[in-house]
């Protein structure tokens, strides 16, 4: 890109490589592909110490000469013992809108310095955490002529996991006001599904969001897959066996849980419709192993279910491609129809059929039907 004028974008992203997880990938892929469009990213993120979930393989997406400025994370829950317990309480119950608020407050000065020293043309923030948007509100007041783009990977006060376990009325009111201010002050807004887009507009009438709100869905990076489909990539300890292999990647929490799937598998085995010795269920990601073991015992699936800890993204893709079927789970409840889930796009490009236990009228279900990439069973069935 030598000789071409590049506009500068300050990308405020608390979660950034070497941190792992699907939210990280959305931002890192934006960074990877920005230069061909005439934009030079400058990243403001947290320090790399004590990151709870690391994936060093994601660093390969980031050009080596990208400016990355890291500031102290102020992660109160990272301490051990009684201090860690106190930190978790403060992070979850006191700090608003989320535990990253201290990072936001103490990183403002650094963000201001970056804008001045790098001649920033655009500010971009992504949530979770929502504190990133709070920082941008502060910067917008200081630098009103610099456009600000706010990216909502998930909804905020309409987030299904908040709807399931709402905060006290006082905090909910504070967060709604914060959210309203972000929607009002940002020059452009992004979310990742048409359903979320519609929800934001319908829940905030009279704000003119139709003119500045856009959908950029999650997706997949062809570079991640181009060398994985050959025989060498699949001939690794995760290769195919005589057993029919069903793989799930991600995590279980809140309403997203495998109970119905385990029950169905147990019933099919008990009824003689499936040979237990010919089925292999892989769970890959972040799980409470004792809960999985309880379900395994309850439905007589011992020897069938194998749990893998969080692994590098590329290694996870190898397991997906070597499977016979990929399992997608999302629970029912208010707002559940808005989710694609980040993994569904990588599931699709893997070429393996998807078994989707999800809201049958939701965004992910529509996507799978339109692309004929799997079978859908409503998550309440």
Describe this entry's structure for a reader:
There is one protein chain. This protein is an alpha/beta fold. Helices cover 38% and strands 19% of the residues. The protein has 14 helices and 13 strands. The chain has helices spanning 22-34, 81-94, 101-117, 131-142, 160-164, 169-185, 194-203, 222-225, 231-234, 259-270, 289-298, 313-321, 343-349, 363-371; strands at 7-12, 39-46, 67-71, 122-127, 148-152, 188-191, 213-215, 244-251, 279-286, 305-308, 325-329, 354-358, 374-378. The strands form two sheets. A seven-stranded parallel β-sheet has the order 3-2-1-4-5-6-7, with helices on both faces. The relative contact order is 0.10.
Structure summarized in a few sentences:
This protein is α/β, with parallel strands linked by helices and 381 residues long. Helix content is 38%, strand content 19%.
What coarse outline follows from CA principal-axis ratios?
A: globular
Mean pLDDT: 87
Largest sheet: 7 strands, parallel
Strand fraction equals 15-25%
Widest sheet: strand ordering: 3-2-1-4-5-6-7
User: H/E element string?
Assistant: EHEEHHEHEHHEHEHHEHEHEHEHEHE
Q: Indicate the percent of residues in helices.
A: 25-40%
Radius of gyration, in angstroms, nearest whole number: 22 Å
- Structural class category: alpha/beta
Number of helices: 14
Number of strands: 13
Question: Stretches where pLDDT falls below 50 for ≥5 residues?
Answer: 231-239
Distance between the termini: 54 Å
């Amino acid at each position: 890109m030598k000789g071409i004028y590049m506009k500068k974008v300050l990308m405020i992203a608390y979660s950034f490589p070497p941190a792992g997880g699907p939210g990280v990938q959305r931002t890192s892929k934006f960074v990877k592909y920005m230069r061909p469009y005439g934009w030079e990213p400058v990243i403001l993120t947290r320090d790399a110490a004590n990151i709870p979930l690391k994936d060093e393989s994601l660093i390969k997406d980031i050009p080596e000469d990208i400016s990355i400025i890291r500031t102290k994370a102020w992660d109160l829950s990272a301490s051990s013992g009684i201090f860690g317990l106190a930190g978790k309480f403060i992070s979850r119950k006191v700090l608003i809108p989320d535990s990253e608020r201290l990072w936001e407050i103490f990183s403002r000065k650094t963000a201001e310095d970056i804008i001045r020293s790098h001649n920033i043309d655009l500010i971009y923030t992504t949530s979770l955490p929502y504190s990133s948007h709070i920082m941008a509100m502060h910067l917008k007041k200081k630098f009103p002529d610099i456009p600000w783009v706010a990216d909502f990977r998930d909804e905020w006060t309409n987030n299904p996991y908040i709807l399931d376990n709402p905060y006290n009325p006082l905090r909910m009111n504070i967060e709604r006001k914060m959210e309203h201010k972000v929607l009002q002050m940002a020059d452009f807004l992004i979310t990742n599904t048409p359903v979320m887009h519609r929800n934001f507009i319908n829940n905030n009438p009279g704000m003119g969001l139709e003119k500045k709100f856009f959908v950029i869905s999650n997706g997949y990076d062809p570079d991640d897959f181009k060398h994985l489909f050959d025989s060498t990539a699949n001939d690794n300890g995760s290769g195919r066996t005589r057993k029919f292999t069903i793989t799930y990647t991600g995590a279980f929490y809140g309403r997203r849980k495998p109970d119905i799937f385990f029950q169905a598998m147990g019933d099919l085995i008990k009824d003689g419709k499936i040979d237990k010795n010919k089925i292999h269920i892989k769970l890959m990601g972040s799980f409470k192993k004792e809960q999985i073991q309880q379900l395994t015992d309850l439905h007589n699936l011992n020897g069938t279910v194998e749990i893998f800890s969080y692994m590098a993204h590329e290694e996870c893709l190898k397991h997906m491609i070597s499977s016979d079927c990929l399992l997608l789970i999302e629970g029912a409840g208010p707002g559940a129809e808005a989710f694609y889930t980040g993994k569904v796009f990588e599931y699709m490009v893997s070429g393996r059929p998807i078994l989707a236990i999800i809201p049958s009228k939701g965004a992910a279900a529509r996507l799978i039907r339109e692309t004929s990439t799997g079978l859908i069973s409503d998550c309440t069935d």
